[in-house]
C-alpha cells in the first residue's frame, strides 16, 4: 500500500543503523524535521528524558536500543561483568520516564535475551538483533491494531484525538493515529480534530504536523475547546493512545485525557483507547502507579518566553488516569476489549498465549 510505505519511510521515529541509534528530534517539530544520532546509551537516556523521543511504544524501542548500545559500550570480557554493566544502564534508562510501562517492557526483554547468551560476543549480537526485531514488530502490531480499530469508525466521522499517538509516538505507524490511518485506508472519508495538548503542545507540534504531512484532514483546537466542539456536534468519536493500562481498564495517558473522556461521556460520544498489549500492566493497581511530575518551566513559559510570575508554585503532572467507566473500548493488536474490562482484557491475553 503506497500510503503505508510513505509513512514508514518518511517518518521513521527511531531506528538502528550501523550500531547507531537514529531518532527524529521531536523537540524541533514542526519547524524542522531533524535526525539525531547516538552511540552512547546515556545520550539515549537524555533523549527520552527530554522528549526528543516520546510516546510509549517509541520509548520502549528506544530503551531497548539504548541497552543494546550499553552492551556494545561495555568493555566487559565476561558474561557476569557485561550483565552488571547492562543492569546499571537499565536503571539509568528506566528512571527517565517511570509511568510509561513500555519502557520497562523493552528493557526487560533485552535483559532476558542477554541472560540467555553464553558469552559476551553472543550476548552483544543477540541483544542488537532482539532490539531490531522489536522495532519491526512495533510497526506490524500497530497495523494490526489499526485494522481492528477501523471497524469502529464510520464514513464521514469526525474523530477527536489528544496528544500524539501517531507515527511519532511509535516506530512508524501509530496507535490512535494508526487507527485513523487504517480507517482512511479502508476507503472511509474522515476528518480529525486534534487538541493542542499543553504544556508541551504534542497535539499542535506533532499530531497536526504528521496528519497534515500524510494528507489527512485535521483541525486544531485549544484544549479548552473540547467541550465546545462536542456540544456543537463537531465530533462523532474520540480515540487516544495510552502509556499504561491496568487489568481493570484504568488508562494512564497524557494529562488532559481524563477531561476529554469526561466530556465525551457528557455528550454520549464513544471514547476509545488504542494501545499494544505491551502497554498493559497486569500486576499493579491504581494506587501503585507513580505519576511523573515534570519541570515547572514547561508551564511558566511558552517557547522560551516567560508567561507566569517569578516564584509561582506549579503542579505539572505528565499523565492522568481515565477510569474504565468512561471508556467504550480498548483497541489492541489482538482485538478490541469492551466492558467489563477485567474479563475482556484477560481474554485478549489468553488469545495470545
From TrEMBL:
Recorded GO MF terms: S-methyl-5-thioribose-1-phosphate isomerase activity
A GO BP entry: L-methionine salvage from methylthioadenosine
Site (Transition state stabilizer): 163
Gene3D superfamilies per record: translation initiation factor eif-2b, domain 1, Translation initiation factor eif-2b, domain 2
Catalytic activity: 5-(methylsulfanyl)-alpha-D-ribose 1-phosphate = 5-(methylsulfanyl)-D-ribulose 1-phosphate
EC number: 5.3.1.23
Family listed: Belongs to the EIF-2B alpha/beta/delta subunits family. MtnA subfamily.
Function: Catalyzes the interconversion of methylthioribose-1-phosphate (MTR-1-P) into methylthioribulose-1-phosphate (MTRu-1-P).
Protein name: Putative methylthioribose-1-phosphate isomerase
Amino acid at each position: 500500500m503506497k500510503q503505508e510505505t510513505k509513512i514508514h519511510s518518511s517518518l521513521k521515529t527511531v531506528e538502528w543503523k550501523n550500531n547507531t541509534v537514529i531518532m527524529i528530534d521531536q523537540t524541533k517539530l514542526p519547524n524542522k524535521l531533524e535526525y539525531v544520532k547516538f552511540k552512547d546509551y546515556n545520550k539515549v537516556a537524555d533523549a527520552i528524558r527530554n522528549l526528543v523521543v516520546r510516546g510509549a511504544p517509541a520509548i520502549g524501542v528506544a530503551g531497548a536500543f539504548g541497552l543494546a548500545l550499553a552492551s556494545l559500550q561495555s568493555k566487559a570480557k565476561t558474561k557476569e561483568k557485561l550483565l552488571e554493566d547492562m543492569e546499571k544502564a537499565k536503571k539509568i534508562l528506566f528512571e527517565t520516564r517511570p509511568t510509561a510501562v513500555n519502557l520497562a517492557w523493552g528493557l526487560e526483554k533485552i535483559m532476558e535475551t542477554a541472560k540467555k547468551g553464553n558469552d559476551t560476543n553472543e550476548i552483544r549480537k543477540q541483544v542488537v538483533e532482539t532490539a531490531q526485531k522489536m522495532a519491526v514488530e512495533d510497526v506490524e502490531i500497530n497495523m494490526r491494531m489499526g485494522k481492528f480499530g477501523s471497524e469502529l469508525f464510520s464514513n464521514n466521522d469526525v474523530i477527536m484525538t489528544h496528544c500524539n499517538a501517531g507515527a511519532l509516538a511509535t516506530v512508524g505507524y501509530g496507535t490512535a493515529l494508526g487507527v485513523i490511518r487504517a480507517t482512511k485506508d479502508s476507503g472511509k472519508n474522515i476528518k480529525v480534530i486534534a487538541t493542542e495538548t499543553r504544556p508541551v503542545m504534542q497535539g499542535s507540534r506533532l499530531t497536526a504536523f504528521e496528519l497534515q504531512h500524510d494528507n489527512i484532514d485535521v483541525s486544531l483546537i485549544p484544549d479548552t475547546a473540547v467541550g465546545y466542539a462536542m456540544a456543537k456536534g463537531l465530533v462523532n468519536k474520540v480515540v487516544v493512545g495510552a502509556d499504561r493500562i491496568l487489568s481493570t481498564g484504568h488508562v494512564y495517558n497524557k494529562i488532559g485525557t481524563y477531561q476529554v473522556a469526561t466530556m465525551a461521556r457528557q455528550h454520549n460520544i464513544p471514547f476509545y483507547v488504542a494501545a499494544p498489549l505491551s502497554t498493559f500492566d497486569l500486576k499493579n493497581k491504581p494506587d501503585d502507579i507513580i505519576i511523573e511530575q515534570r519541570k515547572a518551566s514547561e508551564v511558566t513559559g511558552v517557547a522560551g518566553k516567560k508567561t507566569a510570575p517569578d516564584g509561582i508554585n506549579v503542579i505539572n503532572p505528565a499523565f492522568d488516569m481515565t477510569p474504565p467507566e468512561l471508556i467504550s473500548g480498548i483497541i489492541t493488536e489482538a482485538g478490541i476489549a469492551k466492558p467489563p474490562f477485567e474479563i475482556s482484557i484477560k481474554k485478549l491475553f489468553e488469545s495470545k498465549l
